[in-house]
């Protein structure tokens, strides 16, 4: 449930910018038991908080995807339309397909030295999920933190928490905030939020897609979002290395019963001339196979004995629970986590969970070539 700290001062039109000294400090606010709010109450309370503050830092999770980038930039456009000062920061580089979004050139890679009135974290279950270190947040000394998330694994770690697992994307939550604010949605804001919703619904194919999703998309197009240009940039501008890497992953593919898996090693990424961001979307080819109910892609990290897992499923199979079991999180049908160990060890562990989720017995694993066990 969304939560709001009752010590945050109520704001009104006559007093839209209280002195900064009146803002509760994070340490003070977190000691107060939060009050549960419904969706409409969360939006109203958050708008009051935004109205009463002037400067904001907006960030999201490391290895940003379309929803993280699009919703952060969409929120930046919204806050600036409200007359606010906004900095958007990401710890990791922005993937090339999203360079088409308005304002992407303003994204910085380090936290600002000045103290904003509020830090807004999107799609994060803790500060560290942003990729920035906690001491850096403490040095910045923000007056309060705001958490906006739509993951089942979302946590109430901030002063104000709006978590809505029913939302198909954080971009949709920012859109609802924009509509409630009565601010005119510019073509720039619309394009960013459309990209967020488009990508986090798997091009409107995931189970989270509903009538409200299409209503949002329709309105954003009416406001000036260029659906064709966004799709061309995100889906039809792949670098050669990404396509070569996809070929490698598909050649590595294994299927056992209703479970499909594949892997990408550091050596294979180098051979393909690919980057980490080129792994994005590969797992969707695995879950797209007829008869497959759950799929996982294992990507070796620079730590060598560590793999990043991208999990996908169909129907009622809950890969979010599996990701959470391994310290990760996400959605019922799309989640991720990181596991330490050799490729053989990590594969065995995750397949055991996936087979159990599909209610199928775990068969003996095929012997992998020695080069893949290194």
Strand order of the largest sheet: 2-1-7-6-5-3-4
At CATH level 2, the architecture of the largest domain is Alpha-Beta Complex
Q: What is the alpha-carbon Rg in Å?
A: 21 Å
Shape: globular
Summarize model confidence as the mean pLDDT. 87
First and last CA, distance: 45 Å
* Major β-sheet annotation: 7 strands, mixed
Superfamily (CATH H level) name of the largest domain = inorganic pyrophosphatase (n-terminal core)
Please write the string of helix (H) and strand (E) elements.
EHEHEHEEHEEHHHHHEEHHEEHEEHH
Q: Assembly type of the shown chains?
A: single chain
Q: In terms of structural class, how would the helical and strand content be classed?
A: alpha/beta
Write the layout of secondary structure elements.
Blueprint: E1 3-4, H1 26-29, E2 35-36, H2 39-51, E3 55-60, H3 66-81, E4 85-89, E5 118-122, H4 134-140, E6 145-149, E7 160-163, H5 170-181, H6 187-200, H7 211-222, H8 227-235, H9 240-252, E8 254-256, E9 259-264, H10 266-272, H11 282-287, E10 294-300, E11 306-313, H12 319-325, E12 329-330, E13 334-340, H13 343-357, H14 370-373
Helix pairs in contact: 2-5, 3-5, 3-6, 5-6, 6-7
